[in-house]
């Protein structure tokens, strides 16, 4: 048999809390009811009942569209935008006599704009389809009717099929594990694609199917699985296997989920339970919360304002048209006899002037529709996609250690990066590396380990007057390095230096027996798995957490090497203190009492070679000291002192203890524990906790460990720079208050001279009430205490502000619970907003999300949340912008984020450079769009007024249709992609530039109305200067005045020149692309006019030969164009010159300073 059968770890013997052995509980009674009706006929494809079930196939599609629904669904997406609905209505009405132009001229640009967006959608969906094709065509071995395994494609699998998955292959569907290459049917699974976690999970099959090992054994295998219907719950499964005349309960331990990977196991056999979109990973494939930037939401309001303006001027025009039409027949006389008011249609009927005015109103809505920028939305989408490419390809945000660049996972929020006011950050794995190193320990009341942590270095900098030696001594550290540092090679997870206990010297210490027990606990009390490299013989460890790996590595380096784990034992290479030699010792593993967030501790019960029963325990000091026996507190005072010093040094601590169990005591306890484990009641977990709690008592204290989670490179500098930019930074962490405060100093979140406002419930009064156990009294006193402390904090902040001193708020999780209550949240928020930095300690994931929601809603400013773990997902999704760190804890935070970076320090460049550029580019582009469309649209209105609101457009139909698409949009897109007011270097040198976005200076209503007024002024100048210059004097050499078609061409030429030259004035950073698009757009107008003018007059109408014969040969045409364009640009030029000279912005001052330098 390929790969052979392996005898491995029988994990069913290890875990006491994991439900590896399935048991019937209340949930299984739901089978057969709604939601629990799935029936799977295993290895029985010809069963008629199986054929009738008609379950989905294993083909998976993640595309948004199909060939059948692409057009209707994509059109629906386009017409969710108000502006597009307007243009469709106009396009429909353009086929009626009300239209002032031909229908084709309005339908064409609409088709181009909507078509471009649909093409973009199609391209993105095509990429998704290619990924689907690749996944659906992966190969897997399936059991065929010829009773052998053959390769088949994933998409061909059906429910009930038997498959064989080999090492490092992905599972093609949700499978029921039948057997594996290990003798007891376990396998190791990597679930990074599902939940982002990198540690391996252990799965185990039922004992009844573990013997199914080759093709012949499956010949007679027939079984039925009855289980829950498809759902999104990754960590639950309810069902039963009916096999060989017996019924076996199933649990999540027997289920292998699609897209997870088989690791450290040669092969597994499984049967398909859920396929395709019924698999749990596909059931979880929901879109993240829809987020829109504040700029985009404000843009919608501007569109409504323009709609209002459009209705207003259409109403004005229709009123004037109605009045003049009514007056055309007065006393039987015709005022405008040349219009033949006696023989006309309903659209111009003096006898029904009101009805004519009503129809004219609709004509006006179509005619002045160019006030609404038809190509704005699609242009913004193009610009944002191109901006994300620059973010993704920024080498300064590429992390070569893990080969991870920055990734913009959405393009909707680019400009929002430049408006971030508050950052809410996780600590572990975000500010720190989440790569634990064993650096110090306290054993038998003696501190071991030397060296200064990053937090201690920060404290040294704060205590500049104290010599470094005094600071080191204050943390209980002595210099016992000897020559170890020079000779020792770097070991990941172990940064401990102390010659007193290293290299076996601990046997000479006064408390050698305690040290031996301490190290032994580190080597045994864990769930790590050793992995021996066959070539080098070196041992590495697969652990559930970085802390646990650090402890096992520390034990190995101190003489207790954990090298083998079997189904019932743990084996060590121990240093024998009597002989000084390494000896092999095995410990029979009886129970593992797992760590969880409520227990805050972990224990193992083992039997040593002397037949002694030992309980080895490690846990948080908050739960461990209360479990010590009277005789086990010998070193309690010293150990507590060391723990406090380690916490102050920014280290994570655990207390180490043990006890020896009597045979009778253990027998009674094991019987109770077995009953609790096999209980089928709803409070099974509580029963297990209670029984475990009874054995974890009367412990003997050995010492404490201290591991360091180092700050990521560049974190202090990044936080300092963001603080200079005026960004408020909140850290939400689960650490102790002392640890969080000192980490705050190390990363420059807290700075020398800051006024610290600490809100905590660790007061004598509250502690005394907690000992009494009166919950109502505790809650009342706690609420009053928190309220009082917040009020006092506000007073302190106001006092500090008068002295120009910054404040920092530090609050723990207990206080946060009360501070987030409805009656206190506003008061708490007022205090927090007034502080430069906020640290929330002991925060739960739910509290992180609640705090984020509170800040976002109450301030109305842009919030950014950044984290790296699954516990940060709620916070990332709640914030306006979620940034995921692709770190050690997997990719779940990244999968829930809007932007992904590899290191916290890249946030500086993401916000201060890309955020500043994207914000400025987008808002400038939007303002420019409104300017150019108002300039163009109002020239139509002025001409209408000049022509008695006759409904005649000033321009040829196709001039108007091509205005946005061909002559003005491309320079605006170039502005949105390439413009830079200052370089990246200056963005980082002058971080206060970020406040432009935070205060929304470039997209305030004053700024928007200013651009609109500029458009009005330009339209007035272009219309009146053009008409005044040509209508009352000879234009041609033969003495004729300019006709309607010439006036239209002259005005249109002036508009195209003006709006493109306006772009040239507004732009800050010229590239050859800008030059090409600005001057090329103007040149395109002339090319278009020549080509269009040569078309037959039935199609080109007023454009027929108008440039070649009527305009280009006349010098006055060129002179007038030049004069009108210059005149139209003078107001903006004068305003900018005045503003820069007398009211310079921060950007102007920086540019001036750099020029002088």
Automatic annotation (TrEMBL):
Recorded hits in SUPFAM superfamilies, A to Z, give:
Calcium ATPase, transduction domain A, Calcium ATPase, transmembrane domain M, HAD-like, Metal cation-transporting ATPase, ATP-binding domain N
Record keyword Metal-binding present:
yes
User: Which cofactor(s) does the record list?
Assistant: Mg(2+)
What are the residue boundaries of the P-type ATPase N-terminal domain, all occurrences included? Answer: 40-100
Residues of the P-type ATPase C-terminal domain: 894-1145
- Fetch the CDD domains from UniProt: P-type_ATPase_APLT_Dnf-like (cd02073)
One Pfam family linked to the record? Cation_ATPase
Which residues does the entry assign to the active site, renumbered to this chain?
426
Q: Where in the cell is it found?
A: Membrane
Q: List GO terms (cellular component aspect).
A: plasma membrane
Q: Which terms does the UniProt entry file under GO BP?
A: phospholipid translocation; protein localization involved in auxin polar transport
Question: Which keywords has UniProt assigned to this entry?
Answer: ATP-binding, Magnesium, Membrane, Metal-binding, Nucleotide-binding, Translocase, Transmembrane, Transmembrane helix
Q: Which GO terms describe its molecular function?
A: ATP binding; ATP hydrolysis activity; ATPase-coupled intramembrane lipid transporter activity; magnesium ion binding
Which residues make up the binding site for Mg(2+)?
426, 428, 868, 872
Give me the reactions it catalyses. ATP + H2O + phospholipidSide 1 = ADP + phosphate + phospholipidSide 2
Chief localization: membrane
Membrane topology classification = Multi-pass membrane protein
Matching InterPro entries, A to Z?
ATPase_P-typ_cyto_dom_N (IPR023299), ATPase_P-typ_P_site (IPR018303), ATPase_P-typ_TM_dom_sf (IPR023298), ATPase_P-typ_transduc_dom_A_sf (IPR008250), HAD-like_sf (IPR036412), HAD_sf (IPR023214), P-type_ATPase_IV (IPR006539), P-type_ATPase_N (IPR032631)
- Residue ranges spanning the membrane: these are 82-100, 106-123, 302-323, 357-378, 922-943, 963-988, 1008-1026, 1046-1069, 1076-1095, 1115-1138
Q: EC number(s)?
A: 7.6.2.1
Residues that, per the record, bind ATP: 426-428, 548, 595, 618, 652, 733-735, 842, 848, 871-872
- Function according to Swiss-Prot or TrEMBL: Involved in transport of phospholipids.
- Family as reported in the entry's similarity comment: Belongs to the cation transport ATPase (P-type) (TC 3.A.3) family. Type IV subfamily.
Q: Please give the name of this protein.
A: Phospholipid-transporting ATPase
């Amino acid at each position: 048999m390929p790969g052979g059968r392996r005898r491995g770890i029988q994990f069913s013997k290890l875990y006491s809390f994991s439900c590896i052995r399935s048991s019937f509980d209340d949930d299984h009674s739901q089978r057969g009811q709604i939601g629990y009706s799935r029936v799977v006929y295993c290895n029985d494809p010809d069963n008629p009942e199986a054929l009738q079930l008609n379950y989905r196939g294993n083909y998976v599609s993640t595309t948004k569209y199909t060939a059948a629904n692409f057009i209707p669904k994509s059109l629906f997406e386009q017409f969710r935008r108000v502006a597009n609905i307007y243009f469709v209505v106009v396009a429909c009405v353009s086929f009626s006599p009300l239209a002032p132009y031909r229908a084709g001229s309005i339908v064409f640009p609409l088709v181009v704009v909507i078509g471009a967006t649909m093409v973009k959608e199609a391209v993105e969906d095509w990429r998704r389809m290619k990924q689907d094709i690749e996944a659906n065509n992966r190969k897997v071995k399936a059991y065929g009717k010829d009773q052998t395994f053959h390769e088949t494609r994933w998409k061909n699998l059906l429910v009930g099929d038997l498959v064989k998955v080999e090492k490092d292959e992905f599972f093609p569907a949700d499978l029921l594990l039948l057997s594996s290459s290990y003798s007891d049917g376990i396998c190791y699974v990597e679930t990074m694609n599902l939940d982002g976690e990198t540690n391996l999970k252990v799965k185990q099959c039922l004992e009844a199917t573990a013997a199914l090992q080759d093709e012949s054994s499956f010949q007679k295998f027939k079984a039925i699985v009855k289980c829950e219907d498809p759902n999104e719950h990754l960590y639950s499964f309810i069902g039963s296997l009916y096999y060989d005349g017996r019924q076996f309960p199933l649990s999540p331990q027997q289920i292998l989920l699609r897209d997870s990977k088989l690791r450290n196991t040669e092969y597994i056999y499984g049967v398909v339970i859920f396929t395709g979109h019924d698999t749990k990973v596909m059931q979880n494939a929901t879109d993240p919360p829809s987020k829109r930037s504040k700029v985009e939401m404000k843009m919608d309001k501007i569109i409504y304002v323009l709609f209002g303006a459009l209705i207003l001027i259409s109403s004005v025009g229709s009123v004037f048209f109605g009045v003049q039409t009514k007056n055309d027949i007065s006393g039987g006389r015709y005022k405008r006899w040349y219009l033949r008011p006696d023989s006309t249609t309903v659209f111009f009927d003096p006898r029904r002037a009101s009805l004519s005015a009503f129809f004219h109103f609709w004509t006006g809505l179509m005619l002045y529709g160019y006030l609404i920028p038809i190509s704005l939305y699609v242009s913004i989408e193009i610009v944002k996609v191109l901006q994300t490419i620059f973010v993704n390809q920024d080498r300064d945000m590429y992390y070569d250690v893990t080969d991870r660049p920055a990734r913009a996972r959405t393009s909707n929020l680019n400009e929002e990066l430049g408006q971030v006011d508050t950052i809410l950050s996780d600590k572990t794995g975000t500010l720190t590396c989440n790569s634990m190193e064993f650096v110090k320990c306290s054993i038998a009341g003696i501190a071991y380990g030397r060296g200064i942590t990053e937090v201690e270095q920060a404290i040294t900098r704060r205590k500049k007057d104290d010599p470094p030696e005094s600071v080191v001594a204050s943390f209980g550290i002595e210099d016992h390095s000897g020559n170890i540092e020079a000779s020792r090679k770097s070991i990941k997870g172990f940064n401990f230096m102390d010659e007193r206990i290293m290299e076996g010297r601990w046997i000479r210490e006064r408390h050698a027996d305690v040290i031996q027990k301490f190290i032994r606990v580190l080597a045994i009390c864990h769930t790590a798995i050793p992995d021996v490299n066959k070539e080098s013989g070196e041992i590495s460890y697969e652990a559930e957490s970085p802390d646990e790996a650090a402890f096992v590595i520390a034990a190995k380096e101190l003489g207790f090497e954990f090298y083998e784990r079997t189904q019932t034992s743990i084996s060590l290479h121990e240093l024998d203190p009597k002989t000084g030699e390494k000896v092999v010792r095995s410990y029979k593993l009886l129970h593992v009492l797992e760590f969880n967030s409520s227990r805050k501790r972990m224990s193992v019960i083992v039997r040593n070679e002397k037949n002694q029963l030992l309980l080895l325990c490690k846990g948080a000091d908050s739960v461990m000291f209360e479990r010590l026996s009277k005789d086990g507190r010998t070193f309690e005072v010293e150990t507590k002192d060391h723990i406090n010093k380690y916490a102050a040094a920014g280290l994570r601590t655990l207390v180490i203890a043990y006890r020896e169990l009597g045979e009778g005591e253990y027998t009674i306890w094991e019987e109770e524990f077995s009953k609790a484990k096999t209980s089928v009641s709803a409070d099974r977990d509580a029963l297990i906790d209670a029984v475990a709690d009874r054995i974890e008592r009367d412990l003997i204290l050995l010492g404490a460990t201290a591991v360091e989670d180092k700050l990521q490179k560049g974190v202090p500098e990044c936080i300092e720079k963001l603080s200079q930019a005026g960004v408020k930074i909140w850290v939400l962490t689960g650490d102790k208050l002392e640890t969080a405060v000192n980490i705050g100093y190390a990363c420059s979140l807290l700075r020398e001279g800051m006024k610290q406002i600490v809100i905590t419930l660790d007061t004598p009064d509250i502690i005394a009430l907690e000992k009494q156990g009166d919950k109502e009294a505790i809650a009342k006193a706690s609420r009053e205490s928190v309220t009082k402390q917040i009020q006092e904090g506000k007073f302190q902040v106001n006092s500090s502000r008068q002295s120009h001193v910054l404040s920092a708020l530090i609050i723990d999780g207990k206080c946060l619970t009360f501070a987030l209550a409805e009656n206190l949240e506003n008061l708490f928020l007022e205090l927090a907003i007034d502080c430069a930095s906020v640290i929330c300690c002991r925060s739960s994931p739910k509290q992180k999300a609640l705090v984020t929601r509170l800040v976002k809603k109450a301030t109305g400013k842009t919030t950014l949340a950044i984290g790296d773990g699954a516990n940060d997902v709620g916070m990332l999704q709640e914030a306006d912008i979620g940034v995921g760190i692709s770190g050690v804890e997997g990719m779940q935070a990244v999968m829930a984020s809007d932007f992904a970076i590899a290191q916290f320090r890249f946030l500086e460049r993401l916000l201060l450079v890309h955020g500043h550029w994207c914000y400025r580019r987008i808002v400038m582009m939007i303002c420019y769009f409104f300017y150019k469309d108002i300039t163009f649209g109002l020239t139509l209105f002025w001409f209408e007024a000049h022509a008695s609101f006759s409904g005649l457009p000033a321009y040829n139909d196709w001039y108007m249709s091509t205005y946005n698409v061909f002559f003005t949009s491309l320079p605006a897109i170039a502005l949105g992609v390439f413009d830079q007011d200052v370089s990246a270097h200056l963005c980082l040198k002058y971080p206060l530039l970020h406040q432009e976005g935070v205060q929304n200076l470039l997209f305030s209503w004053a700024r928007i109305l200013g651009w609109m007024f500029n458009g009005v002024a330009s339209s007035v100048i272009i219309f009146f200067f053009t008409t005044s210059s040509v209508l009352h004097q000879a234009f041609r050499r033969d003495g004729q005045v300019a006709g309607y078609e010439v006036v239209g061409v002259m005005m249109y030429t002036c508009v195209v020149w003006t709006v493109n030259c306006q772009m040239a004035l507004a732009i800050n950073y010229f590239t050859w692309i800008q030059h090409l698009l600005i001057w090329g757009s103007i040149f395109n107008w002339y090319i278009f006019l020549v080509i269009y003018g040569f078309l037959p007059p039935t199609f080109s109408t007023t454009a027929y030969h108008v440039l070649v014969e009527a305009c280009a040969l006349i010098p006055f045409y060129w002179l007038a164009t030049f004069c009108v364009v210059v005149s139209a640009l003078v107001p903006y030029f004068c305003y900018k010159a005045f503003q820069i000279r007398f009211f310079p912005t921060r950007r102007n001052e920086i540019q001036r300073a750099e020029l002088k330098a």
